[in-house]
Amino acid sequence: MQINENLLEKLEKLSNLKVPDEKRSEIEQQLSDIVGFVENLSELNTDGVEATFSTVESGATLRDDVPAQNRAVGDDILSHAPKAADHFFIVPKIIE
Fold it and tell me: Cα dihedral angle (26, 29, 33, 36), rounded to 10 degrees?
């Protein structure tokens, strides 16, 4: 599939991006190369290959979900605040 000016304009609208005029031909070529590479993947013979979600056989190793008796993260954050009380930041009043 070749990326042309019309398709690039549609992609610009969809992505809400503007490609500068001096970069348009370069971007068109790069996008065409990417699409060509993806099209090559469809030529791979995947007969006999089982569809999988992960390439890792056993999946991720999980740790036990054990609560820790650590100081709360909020307390660490509030300790760096200029003013804090009762687990809240104290800030100047902005609404009258």
Answer: 160
